[in-house]
Specification:
CATH topology: UDP-N-acetylmuramoyl-L-alanine:D-glutamate ligase
Number of domains: 1
Shape: globular
Number of strands: 12
Largest sheet: 10 strands, mixed
Strand order of the largest sheet: 3-2-1-4-5-8-9-10-11-12
Order of helices and strands: EHEEHEHEEEHEHHEEEHHE
Helix content: 25-40%
CATH class: Alpha Beta
Length: 292
């Protein structure tokens, strides 16, 4: 089925309340000029910071949805996966990627499974090995530091040197992807910065972009970053421009939110709507650098 807009298959969970996963990916990519075809891996009543959230595993329904898409002969310019509802979904998504990927399809895996040194409560231990299988089929991966550590069988450090993070990034690309981006990297010597470090295996260069940290934490920033990143790469931006654009937008959204009283924001909700109009603007200032 032809489409006048580039189409992205977004394979994530959807939360009834809380700006993350599909409730972030759909508006961000739509604002950047892409059609989003959501494939929900789970349905949650809220994001996982809320107590007693309800989660509905969509594993048994994924194949039925995918089979219908195969009958429609849908085409995708990009396939973008995030939070999975169960480890059983990995083999289903591997089949999906192999069936729908063409020579020019951009496949990006955000291995959403851990943060702050531990797996999320809904993630079984076997998800780490299963996620490695999915990563092998990707062109781009966007783990945070904890997720990168799990995939590499390392301990999550409280800070990491430039030499070590280069080694981590190279090891991640040795698993299959051409490009690896580590977010939330506490780089040694940069204690007040929110740092993103990237590596392109094809040209062998490492890139870094940083923003001053805001003294608060918000749920869903990784989903926002990854959504802008795939939209930027699909628009033809280079890797350093893409990570810089993504980091700038996350910073803009955080600062649009930070000034409000916390009791007005619930569980630290990013006010995405306050910043989303900036996605249509061209990049004016860049802050990326080569990581020496």
């Amino acid at each position: 089925m032809r489409n006048p807009l580039p189409r992205v298959a977004a394979i994530h969970d959807i939360c009834g309340y809380g700006r993350c996963s599909l409730t972030v990916a759909i508006p961000v990519l739509s604002a950047m000029g892409f059609e989003v075809a959501p494939l929900p891996t789970a349905i949650l009543s809220t994001h996982t910071l809320f107590p007693d959230f309800v989660i509905i595993d969509m594993t048994d329904d994924l194949k039925r949805i995918i089979d219908h898409w195969k009958k429609l002969d849908l085409k995708f310019e990009a396939i973008y996966s995030g939070f999975l509802g169960s480890s059983r979904q990995v083999d289903i998504l591997i089949d999906f990627i192999r069936h729908f990927t063409r020579e020019d399809t951009l496949v990006m895996v955000d291995p959403v499974m851990a943060d702050h040194g531990r797996l999320y409560p809904s993630m079984p231990p076997e998800m780490v090995e299963e996620m490695k299988k999915l990563v092998r089929l990707s062109k781009v991966i966007t783990p945070n530091l904890t997720e990168a550590a799990f995939m590499l069988n390392y301990k999550t450090p409280t800070s990491i040197t430039g030499k070590d993070i280069r080694q981590w990034l190279k090891a991640l690309t040795n698993m299959g992807p051409e490009m690896a981006i580590i977010t939330s990297a506490p780089l040694a010597g940069h204690p007040e910065a929110s740092t993103v470090v990237a590596y392109d295996r094809v040209d062998g260069r490492y890139w870094i972009t940083e923003r001053p940290q805001v003294p608060s934490q918000y749920h869903g920033t990784g989903d926002i970053f990854a959504s802008v990143l795939i939209g930027s790469l699909l628009s033809g931006d280079s890797l350093p421009i893409a990570i810089d654009r993504s980091a700038q937008f996350v910073d803009t959204a955080i600062r649009a939110t930070f000034g409000y009283r916390e009791k007005e924001l619930g569980h630290h909700e990013i006010l995405l709507e306050k910043a989303i109009g900036t996605l249509a603007l061209p990049v004016k200032n860049t802050f990326y650098e080569l990581l020496d």
